Amino acid sequence: MALETASITVLGATGSIGTSTLGVLARHPERFRVRALTGHRNVMLLAQQCQRFAPELAVVADAASAAQLRSLLGGFGTEVLHGAEGLEQAAGAGADITVAAIVGSAGLRPTLRAVRGGGRILLANKESLVMAGALFMDAVAASDALLLPVDSEHNAVFQCLPGNFSRTRLVDSGVVRVVLTASGGPFRQSSTAELEGVTPDQACAHPNWSMGRKISVDSATLMNKGLEVIEASWLFGVAPEALEVVIHPQSIVHSFVEYRDGSMLAHLANPDMRVPIAHALGWPDRLASGVGPLDLVGLGRLDFSAPDTQRFPCLGLAYQVLRAGGTAPAVLNAANEEAVAAFLQERLAFTAIPAVIERTLAREPLQAVTGVDDIMAVDAAARVRATAVIREMAGIAL
Ligand code: NAD
Ligand code: MG
Predict the structure, then answer these.
(1) Taking CA 276 as the corner, what is the angle to CA 271 and CA 281, rounded to the nearest 5 degrees?
(2) How far, in Å, from the CA of 227 to the mean position of ligand 2?
(3) Ligand 1 geometric centre to CA of 168 (Å)
(4) 10 and 110 co-located in one domain
(5) Are residues 121 and 20 in the same domain?
(6) Global confidence as pTM
(7) Which of the 8 DSSP states describes residue 107?
(8) Does some domain include residue 165?
(9) CA-CA distances (angstroms) from residue 115 to 41, 142, 264?
């Protein structure tokens, strides 16, 4: 029997996750056809992707980028839109599958729009769950969307949970603990003194994964794992007490689920995002991803150790805001995005990133979350606050 083709929209097609997604799709032209691609300011790459995948719609940041893309595409039949309305249209294009792979808080509205439209949502944009977890999961419950995690740890947890698990009653499945693995990043063995002088390029040179610059810095500070703890708590309904992090420098085990009988299930794969992307695209089928098999004997050993929260305070901050609830995670996320941007522009020392977040959290009032407009207002206010803190600190730290 011939397979039906699924239509697919990739929000953030020109990024690391976006290009890996298109790499998997290219292997299965009979299964997928691309409906919309968004690329913000990377017009050249988006033009090549449009020529290769012939989407109905392409979206860029602004009118100037749109004009550039139209001229690159010539008479090609892809409609080009721009800005927030363009993103909204792409997210609401009614694709069978939407890949949410925009980086940062900019992903929240389009991802929520896709969730409200139903269909299968492949979530890479963890920041949207961190900022608006309750709202986001309510939107998923209220629509007929199927949310599948692409983040490798969460995809691993999903694969280790029973097929019929319920996020509101995970304990009924016998789950007692979820353990997320972390590589430890490029500075796993660096002293605090060494951390003070690290450069953006050193922070972005991840030992196992090739990723966008923002998430690479998050991996180096362990904030990425902190954001993932919050992400896991929303996705799977796990309490902070039942969520642990272990350092696993080889990045081969992507996470563990422990059951009450003492069994611990793990998911292993080479560290390549095409594995979780292919899993979520094909589920419950298994699609070839292009990633080779694990060489267990070649690997020889797998190491695990406890994270050092003294040298990497961001992980502790993430647990703190998860317990505090309300707008605290949105404030943490906004302050982190501002601090990481300042570090990447060499306006802030690496070791000042957690201090900026801590001071911003201390100065922003904790509020209850009522809606997405609220969250975006909290995000904006926290950025103003964080920017002021960065200015105060820049003089001292650099
Ligand atoms: P990236 O920087 O490589 O790509 C980001 C994408 O978002 C690009 O297509 C870019 O054009 C677009 N974009 C950037 N700013 C935008 C804005 N303001 N409005 C609209 N679009 C915008 O990032 P990435 O590494 O692919 O990460 C994407 C998301 O996936 C992040 O949330 C990240 O945490 C998550 N994630 C990434 C990886 C990975 O291996 N790269 C793994 C797990 C989760
Ligand atoms: Mg991850």
Answers:
(1) 150
(2) 9
(3) 29
(4) yes
(5) yes
(6) 0.97
(7) G
(8) yes
(9) 24, 9, 32
